[in-house]
Amino acid sequence: MASGIVNAVFLQDQKLRQLAELIRLQEVRNMYHINFASLGDQLEYLRMANDNMASVNTLLDECNAVVAHHGSHPVRGPVARRILAYAEHCLNNALQLVRNYTLRRSYLDKMLDHHHQLFEALDGLDVSTQAAADDLVETIQEFDDMVMSYMRLSLNSFASAEFSRYLRNVGIGFDELVRSHQTKLGLSGSFEDLEEDQKLEVYASIIEASGRLTVLTRSDGPPPSISYRKKKPAYGSAAMHLMDIGQIIWDVYSSDHPITTATREALVFAAEAGGAALGKLVGAAVATQLTGQAATTLFVTAMGLVGGFVGGFILGALAGFLFDLIFTSGGQRPLPTDGFILYVAPMPNGNDIAKQIAYT
Question: Per the UniProt record, which residue ranges are transmembrane (predicted)?
Answer without folding.
Answer: 298-323
